[in-house]
Fold this protein.
Amino acid sequence: MHGMPEGGVGQTAAAAMRPLLALESLGKRFGNLQALKDVALEFRAGEVHCLLGENGAGKSTLCNLIFGVYRPDEGVMRFAGKEWAPSGPAEALDSGIAMVHQHFSLVPRMTVVENLMLGQSRGILKRRQFAAMIRATAERFGFTLDPEAVVGELSVGERQRTEIVKCLMREPRLLVLDEPTAVLPPGEIGALLDICRRVADSGRAVILVTHKLAEIAKVADRVSVLRGGQVVAKAEMASADMGALVRAMVGREVKSLDVALAEAAGRTETRAGGDEKAPHALVCDGLGVRDRHGATRLDNFTLEIRAGEIVGLAGVEGNGQSELGMVLAGLLRPSAGRFFIGDTDLTAAGAAAVTAAGGGIVPEDRHAVACVTGMSVAENMYLNKLGQFTRFGLLRRKALNEAARGLMRNFDVRAAGPEAAFSGLSGGNQQKAVLARELTLSPLKALVAAQPTRGLDINAVEAVYRQIRAAANRGAGVLLISSELDELIAVADRIVVLYRGRLVGERPARASERGAIGALMSGQAA
Amino acid sequence: MEETLAIFIASTLRLAMPLILAASGELVSERAGVLNLSLEGMMLTAAFFGALGSWATGNPVLGICCAVIAALAVATVQALLSVHLRANQLVVGIGFNILALGATTLLYRIIFGGLSREEIPGLPKLDIPGLSDLPFIGTAFLQQSVFVYVGLAFVGLIWLMLRYTAFGLAVRAVGDEPRSADKAGIPVLRVRYLAILITGFMAGLAGSFLSIADINTFTENMTNGAGYLALAGVIFGGWNIGRTIGACLLFGAATALQFQLPAMGINVPTAFLLMLPYLLALLAVAGVVGRLEPPTALTLPFQRGK
Amino acid sequence: MSALVLALPDRRRIARLAIPLGVVITSLLVSLLLIAISGRSVPEAIEAFLDGAFGTAFAFGASVNRAVALSMVGLGFILAFRANLTNVGGEGQIAVGGIAATAVALHGHVADLPLGLAVLLPILAGTLAGAAWGGIAGLLKVRFGTNEVISTLLLGFIALLMVYWSVQSTALLRQPQTSSATLPESLPIPPLTRLPGLTPDPESPLHVGLIICLLAAVATAVVLQRSTFGLRLRAIGLNELAARRAGMPGGLLLMAALAIAGGFGGLAGAIMLQGEQYYLKTGFSSGYGFDGLVVGLLSRGSAIGVLAGALFFGFLRSGGISMEIMAGVPAALTLVIQGLIVIAVAGSVILIEKLDKEPR
């Protein structure tokens, strides 16, 4: 940090007397779901306030209430001393509340300055003036942004900075950032936090929403924890016990993860002997991927997984996992290297060949890659095996539905029936259906599961772990790709770490290795 | 030789003019995410009502006004259906083309009946003393119908609008990422509506150019695919106004060549010259002439929260 | 209570039928009004219309033949549409089908072949030519990502000009020029290559194209509703990436869908040529491609819907022509009706969508 930030301590001290935004016993309900209940919070100018909570804890709902997307069912909000009941986001923006959403709302084909002029500049465009304002704003908060760059060619971090500048140019008094670190590669998180600090130091209030406290701990002044729609803990960061906050956030789920850990420990002990002699299930030999712009996304990735072994691939998202997943799924041809399932070279063979060779794939993006939500449960569960139910080109629907019914029973997929619309299933049931499809390949030699428990409730998570372990016990080699370190420690035998497209180390899957693996994930050690 | 070239340039410009007018209008719609197959129908409607207005009032300028109003009426309904009612843009377009062909033919028979091939009061040609008589420049560029120069001025306005105004920026945003535009406070539906009306206005000029400035009469189905050719011009031009005008000039030149080449004793099948514009456009969208990407949201209706 | 719940889907179904029907009836009323305004006798016009559409064996046959061509294009359209592909190129696919069928019938030495080959080979040639024409759009889509709406439209115009070229040049299909008055048309195809009539009545133009069309409709319905191929088309149309992950040959399926749609168009062209027109001329496809597209879209993916829509449009066209000849009402009126129907049905889609969203 250089130079004295704007604003001033005096202003901060004065504002600390009275909160900029106060929420009083706020409640919001969607149908049967009580999304928020009795939430009382205060946000002060000059402070970075971290809102901590797991997926579904009510963080986004809270932000949307403040930003005027929804209206509360109970309670009141006060902004700058006056009652705050915004009619919509437009009023929030006009009143000095700005929000950086998790999904950016930028037009990729336009330049940074054009994106910022959109809806702001009227009549004849004041391109030069806006460009100067962008540069000035960026400089004021300690970063750079090229106004003439085309947004589609920027990195995620730069796009996020574009969004932040878009907010800051409105001179807001309160800046809300919804899960800003989730999309960032680790190297860019620090820069984001610096910006947040400077924004707060300039006399504004900053709300940082996250479920990863550790990442932002160093910048937060204050932290509040949401769970199940209620505030379960509040603390000043300086005096906070991080462990206690995380326990408050995950609640009962810590226990279930402990159980999983215990089971994992027991399993590794009993199976430790046979590994060396087992045949190779999945072999990656120097795989490399370059993206459209020629940048290396995956570099010389070499890994051997033996039958019956579960290897965890750790790494912060965006370090090449998606590309690896696409290559192993047969959807992306690598620019270098080869990979095998069993003895079959599948490097350029395509998805059907991967399936035929016994490669089960659980893709990270369920809706985009794993299933066709517009079709039925049965059709999705046998999407890759429709040929089995085809006679003279015609689909034997009765046999298909019958088979699907059996599979639904075995894998506990809860739906009205095999002909039910797949889109009507909960995320957990959809994932179980995908697992059912991929695990019932015969023979199943290898399983590649990417972020398999994302967005699932705890029961579904346990079911997914159980199935993955069962597959390994039946002799499949499993590659589990996850950004949740606890998940990998709970389920895998050993953990390899991916950082900026390269494997940077390997560790046993033990809770005691957490620090070492974390260091590898953040690129601190190699 | 020089004289032949000058005549060739002049006829290229004249033949390309309706395409340039229609294509630059259509470009605005397409940049906003709406594909108007009805361009052909708008032009035909305008050609008819332009002729009718000019014939009835004896004043070609009033005729052009009639043409523009008629084309705007078609554009309004097209916008209502494809923007507000989220109807399939292609189907609505085809429907309008059928309707326009039927309605103009029907009205022509009813109103003009036996008086077919009625001469219609047209616009004068440009005549700047001294300049229009210049040997090469004059023949090639300065003896066109006044309409040509007025039309080019409107095309210039569209170029300025797309490049330098907030509305132009909104048009581009709405055609690429309507959701982001909506979040930025842009009234997506209204912008698209206006964009279609601009298309209608320009198609009105293009249609009346055919019947008032060029041929001075109306004939059944006189556009004969000019609207589709203008669409091809937008595609070939890669949704960029300069290149779209270039494409239309090329198409005009190809048409002009079919009159010029035989006169020069060169025998190229007319059909090939007529086909050339479409072939070039096809090669262009296939990526042979550089990669072209249509606006991301082209033909996709917008609905908030969906 | 339960009765009400059960009744809801029926209401939806009724509304689905009622909306297009209402649109059709309104458009017909509007056109009657137009006739009255133009000073012609309405009853006379109606009589002429009905006469021309169904009145005689000839009229009925001609209407059905029109419907056959429209159905073929419509069936191809709904097949490709299942894979989320919009084939706008029916007009051009008819045209190349017609060219190929004419070329084979005139110059393929097929007239003397046994076993019906004299008729079948030109049909096959037309179908394959149409399939190739559709397949080009498929190839462009798969290879370069070219939007098929744009490519099929452009290919359509190219094909229309190919017809023009073929009949302008004696080196291609133009009949030998004996005088300056020789029309730019092909020679008539040999009688043995023409489609046999369906009835012994020599007055009736009905030909076996109707049988081909009905078979095609049944095949389309089976493919769409019962076949694995149909399901795969649907999967690829809904989510291409997931379909490819599930091992489906994405590119091949997309190309196949457009090639089949094109093949249906080419078949329509061959049937139009060998069944009725007998010689190739400019404007040979006369809008059937676009009308067929409309029929396909209005059918909302149902083969029976295609047949019904095609029959309606077929009768409309025939009746319109008769109205012009017998009652002095320009045939363009039928274009007005057709256009109004297309626009109104397209505009009412949102109503049907709203009904679909009502709680069940």
